[in-house]
């Protein structure tokens, strides 16, 4: 079937199999590879993108279901040469180790902050339950989200 | 993992969805949020030949009050329900439980209707709707029919829905000001409940203590007869049939049911 998805503000149209998952459309058809396939079972959150502004796991959505909708990936968060405030905070707070989970963590954090601009540390942990970091670097990830929200980073 | 091949159809109305289901019968499955169905398909535990996508039916994504009932569209997502002011006032148990399902991303996509129809005995909302004395409204070629939640869950992943019927609404009695409690025990944040308890007023439902969500009838009877919360909670596992699994024995589950029921009853009373 033909699928047209607005990816980071640009329309991407392609003929795909009905069973194509959104994450594969993003990586293979739109050519954007920041979005990782991690567990592929709706657990780890590495494939998190925004669909119509809400964080979703793109391994568990058909490209066909996103037809006519808008997707934002990590690549679409900021302009040329700039960092989004959440990206900047992840860098400043060393909120990553190997970096594999980072795109998903950042997209989930952006969505979390959109709903709750000043989360407590506990609320950050609850909001990021759907994202796993195999380096177990959660402490600095929480620091990064608190920092991005403009709050003092308590340790 | 990629699902086996299927044909994707998109329904533009309830009637069209029902007609598509009628045409393909057992071969077809309804696709809503997809967060139960697509994982099964990726694991090849399900391989429907046709998916009927009802995601675009926005009319089924709303909560409204109708007389003494709260009517929840089947396509309402967990995130919608968690933040819904009507639900928060008149069925606060459901609003709370919707915020405890899965994780943020799952709640943005998963639907209450999909969860109920999937009929997993470990599902949070099935037990909550059962505790609320809810009813499920389904549309089929013969029109609409209403099935009480108490008659909807027949066994693990088994409901009385016909292949050409579509769940469209969930109705629960409006009960503003009713005390409620919800507890679930799981190993990790996003795991299914090993055991859970949903309480509203003096109605008590158990998660994962049988092949379906069940009412803790002995506890409810004791409460009606004036027993203390602790004494009533001690009866929570009566008549249940929890499964034996490597990470939770039958006896451990019975213990959890008693402890969690006590906590949920205290929360509801407080």
From TrEMBL, chain A:
Pfam name, any one: Fer2_2
Record-linked CDD domains: fer2
SUPFAM superfamilies: 2Fe-2S ferredoxin-like, CO dehydrogenase ISP C-domain like
Coiled-coil regions, chain positions: none
Protein keywords: 2Fe-2S, Iron, Iron-sulfur, Metal-binding, Oxidoreductase
Pathway: Alkaloid degradation; nicotine degradation
Taxonomic superkingdom: Bacteria
Molecular function (Gene Ontology), one example: 2 iron, 2 sulfur cluster binding
Protein name: Carbon-monoxide dehydrogenase small subunit
TrEMBL record, chain B:
Keyword Ligase: no
Top-rank taxon: Bacteria
Molecular-function GO terms, alphabetical: FAD binding; oxidoreductase activity
InterPro entries noted in UniProt: CO_DH_flav_C, CO_DH_flav_C_dom_sf, Diverse_Substr_Oxidored, FAD-bd_PCMH, FAD-bd_PCMH-like_sf, FAD-bd_PCMH_sub1, FAD-bd_PCMH_sub2, Mopterin_DH_FAD-bd
Keywords, alphabetical: FAD, Flavoprotein, Oxidoreductase
Protein name: Carbon-monoxide dehydrogenase medium subunit
Organism, as annotated: Prauserella marina
């Amino acid at each position: 079937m033909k699928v047209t998805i607005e990816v980071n503000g640009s329309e991407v149209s392609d003929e795909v199999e009905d069973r194509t998952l959104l994450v594969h459309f993003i990586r293979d058809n739109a050519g954007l590879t920041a979005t990782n396939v991690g567990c592929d079972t709706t657990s780890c959150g590495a494939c998190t993108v925004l669909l119509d502004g809400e964080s979703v796991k793109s391994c568990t959505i058909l490209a066909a279901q996103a037809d006519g909708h808008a997707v934002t990936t990590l690549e679409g968060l900021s302009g040329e040469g700039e960092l989004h405030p959440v990206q900047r905070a992840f860098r400043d707070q060393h909120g990553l180790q190997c970096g594999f989970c980072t795109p998903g963590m950042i997209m989930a954090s952006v969505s979390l902050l959109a709903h709750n601009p000043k989360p407590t540390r506990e609320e950050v942990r609850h909001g990021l339950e759907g994202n796993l970091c195999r380096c177990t670097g959660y402490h600095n990830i929480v620091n990064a989200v608190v920092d991005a929200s403009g709050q003092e980073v308590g340790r | 993992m990629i699902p086996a091949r299927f044909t994707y159809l998109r329904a533009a109305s309830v009637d069209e969805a029902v007609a598509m289901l009628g045409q393909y019968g057992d071969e077809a499955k309804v696709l809503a949020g997809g967060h139960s169905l697509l994982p099964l398909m990726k694991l090849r535990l399900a391989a429907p030949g046709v998916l009927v996508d009802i995601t675009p039916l926005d009319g089924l994504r709303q909560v409204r009050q109708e007389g003494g009932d709260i009517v929840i569209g089947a396509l309402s997502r967990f995130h919608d329900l968690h933040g819904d002011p009507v639900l928060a006032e008149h069925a606060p148990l459901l609003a709370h439980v919707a915020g405890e399902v899965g994780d943020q991303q799952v709640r943005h996509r998963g639907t209450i209707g999909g969860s109920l129809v999937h009929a997993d005995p470990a599902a949070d909302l099935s037990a909550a709707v059962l505790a609320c004395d809810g009813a499920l409204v389904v549309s089929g070629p013969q029109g609409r029919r209403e099935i009480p939640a108490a008659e909807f869950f027949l066994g693990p992943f088994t409901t009385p829905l016909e292949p050409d019927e579509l769940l469209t609404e969930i109705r629960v009695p409006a009960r503003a000001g009713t005390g409620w409690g919800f507890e679930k025990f799981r190993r990790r944040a996003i795991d299914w409940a090993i055991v859970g308890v949903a309480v509203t007023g003096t109605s008590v439902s158990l998660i994962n203590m049988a092949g379906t969500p069940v009412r803790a009838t002995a506890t409810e009877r004791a409460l009606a007869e004036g027993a203390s919360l602790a004494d009533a909670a001690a009866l929570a596992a009566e008549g249940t049939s929890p499964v034996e699994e490597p990470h939770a024995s039958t006896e451990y589950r019975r213990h959890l049911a008693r402890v969690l029921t006590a906590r949920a009853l205290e929360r509801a009373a407080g």
